[in-house]
Amino acid sequence: MKTISLGELEKQIMDIVWECNECSGRDVLTKLKKNRKLAYTTVATILQRLYEKGLLIRKEKRIGYVYSPKLSKERYGKSIAKSFLNKFIDSFGDTAIASFAEGIDGLPKKKRMQFLKFIEKHDKSK
Predict the structure, then answer these.
(1) From the centroid of its chain, how far is CA 100?
(2) Could you tell me how far CA 54 lies from the centroid of its own chain?
């Protein structure tokens, strides 16, 4: 899957669609209006762009379009993280790996242990 980065408003809208699992542009607008003032046309445009980027499924209903996520938030997050890590290592090589290892040392102990167990588990599955 091609990694697609999101702008701030796109991410907010995707979070709403992931939360609702299926919603109309009006549903998204209602949730967004709690924190910011937007026009319906702005939300409709962003939903259209997310659909064109392949992140949303769109069904035509009597009331207009209803959107649902094409992939889970978890799967999208994994794709973004993997892409970032690959680009980081491709660009900076061993320095990137050393920096990443130092970053792991800075995690709270519980998160660090969880991360290390995940690496060990993943390494054994290969």
Answers:
(1) 21
(2) 13
The C-alpha atoms of residue 10 and residue 8 are separated, in whole angstroms, by 5
Residue 48: exposed, middle, or buried by beta-carbon count in 10 A (0-12, 13-18, 19+)? middle
In angstroms, the Cα distances linking 64 to 13, 27, 42, 71, 122 are: 17, 12, 16, 22, 44
**Is 65 a member of any domain?**
yes
Range of the domain at 24: 8-69
- pTM for the full predicted model: 0.78
Q: What is the pLDDT of residues 42-92, one digit of tens each?
A: 999 999 999 999 999 999 998 889 999 999 999 999 889 888 888 989 999
Residue type, position 107, single letter: L
Domain end: 45, 69, 93, which one? 69
Kindly state whether residues 55 and 20 are assigned to the same domain.
Answer: yes
Q: Using one digit for the tens of pLDDT, what is the confidence trace for 105-115?
A: 888 999 989 98
Query: pLDDT over 90 for what percent of the chain?
Result: 56
Q: Looking at the chain, how many residues does it have?
A: 126
